[in-house]
Fold:
Amino acid sequence: MNKQKIIGAILCMLLAVTSFTATGFVIKNEPFETTNIDDLIIDRQINSPPLPGYCPNPIPDLFIPDIKMDFDIPIRELSKENGIVIDLLTQLNEGLYLGFLEDLVAFGPRVTGTTACWQAGDWIYSEFEDMGLGVRYQNWSYSGYSGHNIEGTIEGYNESSDEIYIICAHYDTVSGSPGADDDGSGVAAVLTAAYLMKDYPFEHTVRFVTFDGEEEGLLGSHEYVEEAYNNGDNIIGTLNADMIGNTNTQNGGNFIKIYENTASSWLTDFTDDISNVYDDYIGITIVPSGSSSGSDHYYLWQFGYDAIFYHEYEFSPVYHSPQDTIANMNVSYATKSSKLILATLAELAIPGMLSDPPYAPTISGPSRVVYNKEYSYSFLTSDPNGDDIFYYVDWGDDTNSGWVGPYTSGQQSTITKAWDTIGTYTILARAKDTFFAVGDWSTPFTVEVVENQPPDIPDISGPTSGTINTSYLYTFESFDNDGDDIYYYIDWGDGEFEEWIGPFESGESGGIHHLWEKEGTYTIKIKAKDTIGDESNWGTLEVSMPVNKMTTQGSFIQKILSIFPNAFPILRYILGI
Structure:
């Protein structure tokens, strides 16, 4: 047996050990305990990284260059938070991540060369295209296999830079597996990063790459890297995400493994700095775990490029099985892992500000509201360069408005919001201009969300009868169970209204005059409204306006004088008729 066959047999035996189907204890979105990082590093080899799914026999004799790439690594210092990176992290949530993951897994098993795999690649292409990225297929064939890698690109704005940074994952699977964790979890990280980063400028070029053929022996990534090598591409750093969505214990959800070679250790150090500087937004600790040849970063190393491999700390017990479904993942953990990779990529590419950012917005609106009821809030700022403005609002309940706009500098934005849970929330807002320069957060605006009770039905008192064209005083009062101020709405029954007069303190009496011009019986209706906007039921009072005798007599005399116009001249003079 030749050397290649021996190696192939060994790899297949390892696969048989690691690709068993098992039922596992999977923690779903639980808080994570912490442990000592030194203990984790000692224990780092207990859970091995994945191997490609199939063992071609013989193993393909893939091209490896004699002379490897040797680019100068730029110094990357990270000492403080970047506003754009924080902005990206606050927008990456479980809902966004899960949407991409569900769409990919819906294709089912995506074995290289099958219709499902080709369709999944076409879907990724269309997603990149819809995002406005430069996108291309890289079609390849090797040793009886064929597939296509999908590449989306954000060009760096620094025209003097040829630096390239890559985030990658593989979208193919083994036979019979829907591949949610392996490697839908990584593809979803690539797509969310592209979706968020597309709205911002970066000094250096970023590529978002999804490989086919990983499970057949890293074929797609080899073909991609060989092409890049032949083109002389200056790929400074690559972040490979493969299986980042499983944790079997609460403690395991606090950590992620990083595999490196010696040349790439600077990337491990850099992503470790990211996890520390942005800990409030990410909440995950890296565990340096040595080297691994088990995923698409491997051929980057072989060609002289620097790359690191992100992998879940606790290996999935349903790896390479039909049970590799979203239900057996931990989406919360996968989202945290994706945030670490996103922040690392964004800082490597260097977020840019091509103009002066807008000033911090001011916020106006009600500070005490009722849950499950919409209220309007206004946001206002200006841009020092007069650029158009977009507003972003964090509502304090893990939801946000997204970027709303554009508005002209100095134009107010009004956005509605309803909270579904009683509590106290802090609204924050910021603005960015059309050059993606993001300004500071606003002064916090606190909102108390309550279960409000409307005011009592108002009491109204005053004359219940009278004569027309005579003004009468009516008084009213109501009590609010929450002690809020009160406004009153009065319908006099004759087509006249008093629209929300006030405010009055709870229990404070108010008074207002009214007269009726026509005889009849009228129903006065009055209701109260508190400052939150909840209204009471109507209170009523019936009023009768009898005939005015003087008016009746005058009408009778007028009628006589109209019949005898030349009679009673003195009387006509006295009456002014």
Q: What stands out?
A: The longest strand covers residues 423-433.
